[in-house]
Protein 1
Amino acid sequence: MPANASIPLSTEHGDRWAAMEARYWEGVFQRAAERLERSRELLETVVAEYREARYSWFEAIAAADLVRTLRESGDQPQAEAVDEELSEHNAHYRRVHGRDGATVPPEHE
C-alpha cells in the first residue's frame, strides 16, 4: 500500500503511530521526487506530532529530514533555525547521522 494511502487509513482506524510513520515516509518520498513543498508540509506535521507524543528519537530523525528538505529547497535560514532549536531541546537530534550536512547520510532502505 502506498504511504499516502495509509495515512488516512491509519487515521480512520485510530492507529496514530502508523499514521505518523506513514506521514514521515511520504515526506521522505516526496523529497526524493523533488516535491519539496509537499515534503516540507508532511515533515513539519510529523515533527510536531512526534513532539506532542513525546517520541523524541523519532522527532529527531524526522527533523533531520525536514532540515535536509529545507536546505534542498533553498530555505537556509529556516533550516538553521530548526537545526538550532532541535540541537538545544532534543539530545537525540545531535546524534542523528548526517544532520549537519557535513556528511551525506545513506539513503533509507
Protein 2
Amino acid sequence: MKKLIKLLLCLLMFLLVGCIEKETVVDEVPDAENSVFTEKGRLFVTSGENVYEIKKSSDSFYKDEIYEYEENEKRVVFAGITQVKDKLFVVGGSFNPDCSEPPSFSDLLSGNIDRFYQMLSNMFLDIKIFEADLTFTNTVLKPVYTLNSVIMPNGMTSDNEGNIYVVDMAPSPLGKIVKLNSDCLSCSEEIFANYNQNIVLANGLTIYDNTMYFTDNDARNPLNIKRYVKKLPLDYKNGEIAETIFDKTGPSIFDDLTNGELFGLKGILVTDYFKGQLHFIPFNKKFRSRSTPVGSFKGPSSVSFGKGNFDPDELIVTEKGIPFELRSSVGNKVTKAYFSK
C-alpha cells in the first residue's frame, strides 16, 4: 500500500500540469525547502543537504553552498530561514542515521498517522540554530545554538524587535511555535503559541503589521485534510486563539507562505503542496482570493517576491517535489514564475 501511494504521488505531480509562465532558476537543489531575500536582495535557499546562495553570472544563475561540513558530520536537513539585521538565521536538524527511512507522506495520506509521527519524531539527533554574517560577500553558516524544545523544525521568521520564531511541526498537542531573541538565543527560548492558541500542525510563518500569519493542517482525515492560513497578534492576550483567514479541504497540505503585493493589493501568498498551487489572499476582504492552476508546480514548498537579480513581479518558488527524494527529477529546484491576472 505504501509503495502504491508513493507511486500515486509521483503520478499526481507528473499529470497535474497547470498553465503558468515559469522557468527554472537552478536545479539539483535536494529537497528544496525555504527561501528568503535579504534586505539587499541576496537570495538564500534551504535544502535537505545545505543552504545555498543563488547568484547570477552574466545571464545565468548558479548556487553556492554556504555551510561547510566537518569531517564525518551527519547530514543536516535545513528548514526555516530568516534575516535579523546583518545576520542570517537558519534552523536545521542532524539526520539520524538509525532512522531506517524518513517519514513518508504516503503514510499520512493512507491514514497511518501514528507511524508518520513516530518516524517524524525519530528523524533528527539534534535541532540547531545556524547563523551567518551577511556583511561578508562569501557568507559562511555556523551552528550557534541547540534548541531544547523542538522535535521537527520547519518555518522560521523574525519581527522588528530581533525576535526569531520557529515552527515545531510535532503532532498535536506537542506542535508549537517557539520564540527566541537573536541577541541571546540561549537565554530566551520559550513557547510563543501552541494548541492553546488553536495550533494543530503548523508549517510556515510570516509577520505583517505586528501579526503572525501561519499555515496549519489537520490531517486526522487523510483524504479530507483541512488546511488553513491563520493569524495571531504578536501581543495576543491570554485565552486568545488564532483566527482562520483562508481554508481548503482535500488531500494536500499548506506549506510555507509570505506577504507582499499582487494585483495592486497587499496580502498573503501561500503554497499548496500536493495541489501544486499558489493562493493569494488579499488583506482587504472586499477582494476575493486568487489561485494558480492545479499542478502549476511540483510540490511547491515556499514562495518569495522577487528582489535583487529578480523583477518585483517575479515569484521565486522552491519546488521540493517528492519529499525526501533528494535526487529525483521531480522538483528539487528553484523556479521563477508569474501570477497571471
Protein 3
Amino acid sequence: MVLRVPRQPGLTRSAAGITNRFPAEALAPGQPWPETLEEILACNGWTEADVATWAERWITALRAEFLDASPGNLVPEVDTRLPGHAFDAIPRNLLVDGDRATFIDLEWNLDTPLDFGHLLVRGLVDTFLTTPITGWPAPEIDPTYLTLLHAATAPLGVHLSDAAIAERLDREARFQQVVSGRETNRDFAWLASTHPASRAQLLMHARGLTDEVTALQTERSELINAFEDARARTDRVIAYAAEREREVERLEAALVRAEASLVMPPPEPLGPAIRLGRAFRGLFPSKRT
C-alpha cells in the first residue's frame, strides 16, 4: 500500500478549484508507459505511426478507466468531458503489464469537469518533455513538440486546431501557476518552434564530450606515468655517471701512485774518501811498463 501525506499538514489542500487528494493505493505491477515511447524514439527511422500506436494504448486505458469502454469510436472527441480526478491520468502515471493498464498517483482533482483535449495536450507534452529522443526520425519528420503532438493524435482521428491547442496550453499554464507558483512560458509559439531532437543531439554531443574528456584524462595519466618513468631512468643514469666519475678519479689516483713507484731514485752523492783517492791518482799517474 502506498500512503501519501503532506509535508506541511497545515497547508490547505484546495486552491482556485484544484484539490490535492493525497491518494492511498495498492502497489501495481507494470512498466511506466513513457519507457515504451523512449524505446521507440531510440530507434533510427521512427515514424508518426509508431508514436500514434503508443499514444493509442494510453487513450484506450483512459476510456476503460473514465469513460464507457464499449466498442465504437475508440478515441473520444476533443470536447468529451472527463471527471476532475482524471487530471493526472497522463502517460507518466500509467503502468502497463501485458493487457493490464493501471493509473497511479492520481494526485490532483479539478472541481470542474475536465475535457479530453486538455488532458491530451497536458499528457503528451509532459511526456515529450521528459522522454529523451536518441534515434533519428524518418526523413519526412521535422520533430517539434507540435509535430509530435500531431503525430500522436492525427492518425487516431483526433483533430486539434492550433487555436484548440493554444487554449489548452493556457489552461495548463494557469494550473501550473496555482500549484507551483511559477510560470511555465509554454505557449503555442514555444510548442511550434522547439525541437526535442535538438535536445537529443545536445545529449549525444554531451556524451561525446564526456568520452573525449575521459580520453584526454587517460592520455594525461599515461604522459605523467611516462614522464615519471623517464625521470626515474634519468636519475638512475645520473647516479651511474656519478659512480663512474668517482671510479675514474680512483683509477687516476692509483695510476699516479703506480707511475711514481716506477721512477728510479736519483744517484747517491760521492763520499769524501772516494773523491780524495781519485785526486791522488790524478797527481801521480801510474807508470805503465
Protein 4
Amino acid sequence: MIRLALILVMTVCGAAAAQPQPRITLDVPLTASAGFQFEPYAFTASLAVAGDGAVFIALKQVDDSEKDETEKKVRIDLLALARDGSQKFRVVVPATADRSTGSLKATVVPSGDVGVLHVFNDDRPGVTTSLYRFAPDGRLKKKSEIGPPSRRTGAPYGYYEIQHFQPTADNAVMLSGGFGSGPYGWWLGKFSLDGVRIFQSGPGQGFPENVSAMAARPQGHWLAMVLEMDPKGMGLDWYLHRYTPAGQQQSRVKVPAKGGYAAAILSDGGVVPIEDKLVYFNDLGRGVREVPWPFANTTSIVPAGDGFWAVVSGAAVDTPNLIVRVDGRGNVLWRTPPVGHTPSIARASDGQLMAVLRSADRATLRLVRYDDPP
C-alpha cells in the first residue's frame, strides 16, 4: 500500500514537471496580528474578490503565548487588499471565538459591502451563527445572529457547516453546506446581509450530507449539487437541485455519479471528480461524458467558464497540494508545483485565480494570484 501511494505521488509530481506552470502575477505575504499566529488547523482563511480586483480575507488567529491549546485566545480579522496587494484596511471582526469555530467565510456583494460569517459551536456557552456586514471602507454596519433552520432542528447543539457563501445579484448571500451536530444533513439558504432569512431548503434527513456546489443561471434560478444519504443508508448519492429565484424547488434529479465529495457547477452543467475520472453532466442532471483524472484527492473546485481550477493531491497522507487548471474537455492545462496547504481559492474578476497558501509547517500564509502561461 505504501509503495502504491509513493508511485501515485511520483506520478503526479513527475507529470507536474512535464506540464506548463502558471504565471504568478501577485505574491504577497500575510502577517498575523501582534501577539497572534495563524490558526494552524481548520478555518484559517476565507477570501473573496470584488469586481475591481480588491481582495477581502477573513483570518483566524490564535494567541501565540498560551501553551494550553484549549485556553488560547482567538482573534478574527478582516483584511482588505487592493488589486496590487497593498493594504486598504484591517479590522477586527467582533466575534465570539475560541478554537471551536464551525465555519468562517467571507464574501463581497455587487454593492461593495462585505459579509463575514462566523459559526461558534462550543456547546458550553451555546452555538451562535453571526453574520457581519461591513462597508467597503471596513466600517461595521451590522451584526446579525442567524438562528437554526427550525425549532425542531435547533436542539440540542446543531450548527451550520458552511461550504459556500456566495453573493447574489440583488446584494444578498446564498449559504450552503450542512446543518446538524456533526455529521450534518444538507442545507442551503438565502439571507440579506442584514441577517433576514429570505428562503431556505433543508436540512436533509441523512448523515453525513452536504451541498458541494451552487451557482446562479442567467435566468435567475439556482442549481445545487447535493450529496444525500441513500434512503436505505447504503451510501451517498449525488442530486442536482434546481430552485427558482424565489427559492421554490423546481426539480431534484439523481446524477449518474457515485463517490467523491467535491463538485462544481460550470457554464453548462457540472462536474464531479470521482477517484480516477471526471463525471460531467448537463443542467438536467444527465451524464454527458467521463474522462480520466490523475489525482486521488480533489478538495475544492472553482468554476472557470466551461472549465475549472481545483486543489488536488495524491493518495498519501499529508501529500502537498497542487492547483490545476482544467479546460471544458477535462484536459489539465497547467499545474503548480506543490504549494503546501490551500485554505481558500477564488476567481478574480479578470479571470485569474486568487489563492491563500499556507506553508508546509502551517506557520505562514501568502496570497498568490495565478494566470495562464503565455
